[in-house]
Specification:
This is ROK family protein. By secondary structure, this protein is α/β, with parallel strands linked by helices. Helices cover about 35% and strands about 25% of the residues. The chain has 11 helices and 12 strands. The chain has a 5-stranded mixed sheet with strand order 3-2-1-4-7.
Length: about 280
């Protein structure tokens, strides 16, 4: 029997089909292929799939997708539809909830927070060994805390989310706003000859520090793990956080705090593999 594990974000859908003999990896654009359409294809190609675990960059609860600012949704009631159509049990959870499960296992910590920056910015927390979910599984949606108003809108419909500053999509919107056609590259923006591009980088750093400070102050973790594409491409952000976090977080919350860079190849996908036993 095979198991299908999926990590879908605002840019890519990555998957692994795992059997005792082999693991088959795949990656497609999440802007071009819907999640249900992808599952339909894989279930047809691999009729012996016995379980599907999904890490999803959006708000999900009890097998239902509530919203996703950066993904086009082709089916909300995904678990029920897949179960009805193929008889395959499916567990889906927010991508950061999945990531923090994997990071907790790797770092062997029961008090850990994950902050990942890629297309969006997200966070999740495990406190005394339990994932902090909230009443509708939407705890620590850090990307959508109010920050500063902008002349454009977040995918959630508001124009003051911190994700509009501290994320890849946010930087892209600022570049478009200023009329720049340059590639999205934080390091290049920091060293640009164009004042508006340097401003985008500066605003990103300040918003990233603010989000980190809020997370550490509220969650009081033993370990804060940083990950996601923007972090991986700009590892200096870890050093920046070490140097300046004390200006953005409660001092008492910083005592004993370790800041680590994720070393997992794909923490959300690794966390999706834990959903069968942890059941979302």
């Amino acid at each position: 029997m095979k198991k299908l594990f999926i990590d879908i974000g605002g840019t890519h859908l990555r998957s692994e089909i795992v059997s005792e003999e082999h693991t088959a990896e795949d990656m497609v654009s999440s802007q071009e292929v819907g999640l249900l359409s992808y599952i339909d294809k894989q279930a047809t190609l691999h009729p012996d799939i016995s379980f599907i675990g999904i890490s999803y960059a959006g708000q999900v609860n009890n097998g239902i997708i509530a919203a996703s600012p950066n993904i086009n949704i082709d089916e909300y009631d995904i678990a029920s539809v897949v179960k009805s159509r193929y008889g395959i049990p499916l567990v889906i959870d927010n991508d950061l909830n999945c990531a923090v499960r994997a990071e907790s296992a790797y770092w062997q910590s029961d008090n850990i927070a994950a902050l990942f920056v890629g297309t969006g910015i997200g966070a999740a927390v495990i406190d005394h060994g339990s994932l902090v979910k909230g009443s509708r599984n939407m705890a620590y949606e850090i990307g959508h805390i109010p920050y500063q108003e902008t002349p454009f809108f977040c995918g959630c419909g508001r124009n003051n989310c911190i994700e509009l500053f501290a994320s890849g999509s946010g930087m892209g919107k600022w570049l478009k706003h200023f009329g720049s056609d340059h590639d999205l590259d934080l390091n290049r923006l920091k060293n640009s000859d164009i004042e508006e591009e340097r401003l985008i980088a500066s605003r990103f750093e300040d918003a990233f520090l603010h989000a980190s400070g809020v997370l550490v102050t509220l969650a009081n973790p033993e370990i804060l793990v940083l990950g996601g594409g923007v972090i991986e491409q700009n590892p200096y952000l870890g050093t920046l956080l070490e140097e300046k976090l004390k200006r953005y977080a409660l001092n008492a919350s910083l005592e004993g705090l370790r800041i680590e860079m994720s070393v997992l190849k794909n923490a959300p996908l690794e966390g999706a593999k834990l959903l069968e036993t942890q059941n979302g």
